[in-house]
Write a structure and sequence with these properties.
The chain is 28% helix and 31% strand. The chain starts with 14 loop residues before the first helix and ends with a strand. The strands form three sheets. Strands 6, 7, 8, 10, 11 and 12 form a six-stranded antiparallel β-sheet that branches. The protein has a five-stranded parallel β-sheet with strand order 3-2-1-4-5, with helices on both faces. Strands 9-13-14-15 form a four-stranded antiparallel β-sheet, with no helix packed on it. The chain contains ten helices and 15 strands. With 378 residues, the protein is an alpha/beta fold. Strand 1, helix 6 and strand 2 form a beta-alpha-beta unit. Helix 9 packs antiparallel against helix 10.
Length: 378
């Protein structure tokens, strides 16, 4: 391999092009928050996130030495910096927002500007001057798939990754499990308070201003029900909150993954209960694993970034899908069902999750259900 790799500096957007990009709905719905340092700081303060990526790179310096690396969604440039510190010959960091300017400043301060090049553009619009050996990216959102950034990683893989090249991370899984907390009861109480407040509002508006708002009660009720009880909630669950065995509902190998495998998907789950309990919700979380590729395998044991309850706090937390009212069940009962996930029509970076479930005895007798509920991940 040559001692230098070609520059892609001319791939960055012009100021006018960036201004036009920032007028797009996708920028307003997604990209805009990532250009602020306070948001980057939140992710950089996630110690589990930082430790996993740092370990995966530094434990595999022999795989980075002298290689060309692509960082998809470079943000502050932290992964690009680590790749260069691990010995990469050249790192292209692609970042769509103006935080790219701060990334360049940070990289220059580390003395790495000769090997790390930040390109301000979306991944879909970039043309690199050469193929790359490694793609690194922190693409995961809530429930793993919210934000749909994985799409851009696959674009990068198909356009720029050499045969046998490695992705960091290379594998990902989503898990679900029955959970009991008092959050579902609190959310229902908040819904009732909202409706009581609406009743007072309707009466006051009619008595003081002569306008009867009662005709909008049904629309307001549906709106509040969706907000409080049909929208997934971020939570930092403890291990004790999980009352049944977890079940893997999605298993992705990024080396071979196709968009249609996760853009929408359906799966089944079976979760035996650990004790006599109540069930107030389903909890979900994910893992990502850094295995590399078959030709360029990472050192074992592989580094795993685990966001499970009780494994340590991350900014992803867990997503909780509340059930109301909570149901009672016994140790040994089995929560079984199916999950269907798809993207929202109005915003492809957000998700709709439908879960159908029953609670059964080991004999197969149904004790509760079947019931079907739908939530949004906003």
């Amino acid at each position: 391999m040559a001692d230098t790799a070609p520059s892609a500096q001319d791939q960055s957007r012009s100021e006018d092009q960036q201004d036009n990009f920032e007028k797009s709905s996708d920028f307003a719905n997604y990209f805009c928050t990532y250009e602020f340092l306070y948001h980057q700081k939140q992710m950089l303060e996630d110690q589990k996130r930082m430790a996993a990526y740092h370990s995966a790179i530094m434990q595999n310096k022999d795989l980075f030495k002298g290689k060309v690396v692509l960082d998809v969604g470079a943000g502050s440039g932290i992964l690009s910096i680590w790749a260069a510190q691990a010995g990469a010959l050249k790192v292209y960091g692609v970042e769509a927002t103006r935080v790219a300017n701060n990334a360049r400043i940070l990289i220059e301060a580390q003395g790495l500007s000769d090997r790390v090049e930040i390109i301000q553009s979306t991944m879909e619009d970039v043309t690199l001057p050469c193929k790359v050996d490694i793609i690194i990216s922190e693409w995961m959102g809530y429930f793993l798939l919210r934000e749909s950034m994985l799409d851009s990683v696959l674009v990068a893989r198909d356009k720029f990754l050499k045969p046998g090249g490695a992705l960091y991370p290379s594998h990902a899984k989503i898990f679900v499990a029955p959970v009991y907390t008092d959050d579902a009861i609190k959310k229902h109480a908040s819904y009732q308070e909202a409706m009581q407040d609406w009743t007072v509002f309707v009466r006051t508006t009619k008595n003081k201003y002569g306008v009867d708002m009662e005709c909008l009660t049904s629309a307001f009720r549906n709106e509040q029900w969706e907000y409080y009880l049909q929208t997934a909630q971020w939570a930092d669950l403890s291990g004790h909150d999980v009352v049944g065995q977890s079940s893997c509902v999605l298993d992705l190998n990024l080396n071979t993954l196709k968009l249609e495998e996760y853009k929408s998907f359906s799966s089944t789950f079976t979760c035996p209960l650990k004790s006599d309990t109540r069930i107030s919700s389903f909890g979900s979380w994910f893992t990502t694993t850094f295995e590399g590729s078959e030709e360029n395998q990472c050192k074992q044991p592989y580094v795993v970034l685990d966001t499970a309850p009780g494994s340590g706090t991350t900014h992803w937390g867990q997503q909780v899908f509340s059930l109301y009212p909570p149901v009672s069940a016994m140790r040994g009962d089995i929560v079984t069902g199916s999950i269907h996930v798809k993207r929202k029509k109005e915003n492809q970076r957000l998700l709709v999750v439908q879960i159908s479930h029953s609670i059964k005895k080991p004999t197969g007798a149904i004790m509760d259900g079947p019931a079907t509920n739908t939530w949004q991940i906003m």
